UniProtKB/TrEMBL annotation:
Residues 34-72 are annotated as: Disordered. Belongs to the PPR family. P subfamily. This is Mitochondrial ribonuclease P catalytic subunit. The keyword Cell division does not apply. Its cofactor is Mg(2+). Residues 39-50 have a biased composition (Polar residues).
Length: 579
């Protein structure tokens, strides 16, 4: 009988004869086996009705300067437009996170070195032996070779010849090596090899690690053995919750093999787990909808989900979405890829999109959550004392509602070339006529080279000022004053308050916060001392999936358009139903 054991990350084949026989399917048709191992008998081998929703244009009893399209000509593209932060660290972070399920091949430099070492054809056992002995780095040679093949997308016969060599030399195949080989097979779509590796590993181990399971789910779902994926999912569940990618791969297997019922059952399970489905899964489901004309409600629910979670489909998905709508029998949907003009009017059908302004209920909900979770939440007190916040609250309550709040330090630091108080004074002066609050730090009141006493006195005459302790964080103060003042109140800052977005309790509130921010944040364009100040325009319309019943508008991400998390897409799919 075959004895199995896990040891030091490799599996040791204590009975090499049997186990190498297990490997045979994997090593069939190796190009070279002149020195076939003597032990190895080598074989030959919903609709969102926004009709009643109007754009709030004026607010009673408060001054309101329209920072939207009327001043558009002088406003460059919104800071929230996709691509503005293309080269930010955030994108890099997101990208590095996206690859975590793949077996790594190290740094780009290391990867290039790995690729350079890989032979360009399958080698015989003796050729591999020679290559290894001539290598300047014989340690981890086999693993490095396999990683190099993965990075170079090398022909699978080369990888097989490597396995053949290792099996011949050691009578075992280290687990790590087999796992990398499996990665190579899955990424290259080598279905029969995936199937073989599955049989080998299943026969040698009671359980596998979740990385291997994930690879098998992905690989086998594309083969006629896709139903075994359901068993693997159950095995994964004994250890962890399967990832949305695991579910997605299983869904795609079910769809590929025409089992719509299983596909939707798996999708339902994914949603019940509270996982975020990936776009590829949605694409599979929409594509199956095109040929089957079923599950219309479930597919429309995906659009609702995108709306509620502020998700933007990528181009590939949006094309499937379009095809699905256009395929609906007895309906006459036509889709066009288009853009929206600065007033929020669809360039294709002329529909006015939903306003960026929060409705009264939305505003009340946001205010309640922010006051409760951000202002009263414990995190504020890391840097702000409760007494200071209380004194600020009473300061705000004694004054009329503010029209605009300036993040003083942040605004003053816009240009290093200029005296800070001068920059701040220029911004305050530009906003004259409005009821302004300047939030500052106590040190700004100490006359210095950067903080001119005369400038500061003028600022105090033109605006209400509140100076916090130097170490205090200003965001909670800014949020409190803005939300206390009402929906008309804008704020000036270059900061995008991402930290606070993260501490909001749920997706709905985060979405409202983001919407509020895009509608209320004034961002200074390049400031040139002595020149008139310009603010980047705020958007008039909301960038979110929306429908009037006879139309659907879906903002989507263009291919190759890197968009930071706080930016919004600029392209739309317009679907209209002309019955
Ligand atoms: Zn339209």
């Amino acid at each position: 009988m075959l004895k199995k054991q896990f040891a030091m990350g490799s599996f040791i084949l204590t009975n090499s004869r049997t186990c190498l026989k297990n490997l045979c399917p994997l090593l069939r048709h190796p190009l070279y086996h002149q020195r076939a191992p003597q032990k190895n008998k080598q074989p030959n081998n919903h609709s969102y009705c926004t009709n009643g929703e109007r754009r709030p244009s004026a607010f009673h009893g408060t001054k309101h300067r329209d920072f939207t399209q009327r001043e558009r000509t002088s406003f460059p593209k919104s800071v929230f437009a996709a691509g503005n932060a293309r080269r930010t660290a955030e994108i890099l972070k997101r990208k590095s996170g996206a690859d975590q399920e793949k077996v790594g091949t190290g740094s780009p430099k290391g990867r290039a070195a790995c690729i350079a070492e890989v032979p360009d054809r399958a080698l015989s056992v003796s050729e591999w032996r020679d290559l290894k002995s001539s290598s300047s780095r014989p340690e981890r040679f086999e693993l490095r070779m396999m990683e190099g093949m993965l990075a170079a997308k090398a022909d699978i016969s080369i990888a097989k010849s490597l396995l053949n060599y290792v099996a011949d030399e050691k009578g075992t195949l280290p687990y790590e090596l087999l796992l990398r080989f499996l990665t190579l097979c899955v990424s290259g779509g080598h279905h029969s090899e995936v199937s073989d590796v599955y049989d080998i590993m299943k026969s040698c181990f009671k359980t596998l690690d979740t990385g291997a399971y994930s690879l098998f789910v992905k690989g086998l779902s594309q083969t006629e053995r896709w139903r075994e994926v359901l068993i693997i999912l159950e095995d994964i569940k004994k250890v962890i919750t399967p990832s949305s990618r695991n579910y997605g791969d299983a869904v795609s297997g079910a769809v590929l093999h025409g089992d719509r019922e299983t596909a939707w059952r798996l999708y339902g399970e994914l949603m019940d787990q509270g996982l975020m489905p990936n776009q590829e899964t949605w694409r599979c489901l929409f594509e199956s909808g095109v040929s089957q004309h079923a599950n219309k409600d479930e597919l429309l629910a995906i659009l609702t989900y995108m709306r509620e979670n502020q998700i933007y489909p990528e181009e590939k998905l949006v094309r499937s979405l379009k095809a699905w709508f256009e395929s609906l029998p007895d309906e006459n949907w036509r889709g066009k890829f288009t853009s929206v003009d600065p007033r929020g009017v669809c360039q294709s059908c002329g529909t006015e999109l939903e306003s960026i302004q929060l409705t009264e209920e939305e505003y009340a909900q946001l205010k309640h959550r922010v006051m409760e979770d951000v202002i009263e939440g414990r995190d504020v007190f890391n840097k702000t004392t409760p007494e200071e916040l209380e004194s600020f609250k009473s300061f705000v309550k004694k004054r009329p509602a503010f029209d605009v709040i300036i993040d003083g330090l942040n605004v003053a630091n816009i240009t290093p070339k200029c005296v800070k108080s001068q920059t701040l004074l220029a911004v305050v002066s530009e906003l004259q006529g409005l009821n302004i609050l300047v939030l500052g730090r106590k040190h700004m009141q100490q006359p210095s080279r950067n903080w001119n006493r005369h400038d500061m006195n003028q600022i105090k005459q033109k605006a209400h000022c509140f100076f916090t302790e130097n170490i205090s964080e200003d965001d909670p103060f800014l949020l409190y004053a803005a939300l206390h003042s009402g929906n008309h109140c804008n704020f000036v800052s270059r900061d995008l308050m991402r930290d606070h977005k993260a501490c909001l309790p749920d997706n709905a509130t985060r979405r409202l916060f983001f919407k509020w921010q895009r509608g209320h944040q004034l961002v200074l364009s390049n400031f040139i001392p002595g020149k008139r100040i310009h603010f980047q325009r705020t958007s008039l319309y909301d960038t979110v999936v929306q429908s009037h019943g006879k139309t659907w508008h879906v903002p989507y991400d263009e291919d190759r358009g890197d968009r930071s998390t706080y930016e919004v897409p600029q392209r739309w799919l317009c679907l209209s139903n002309d019955v």
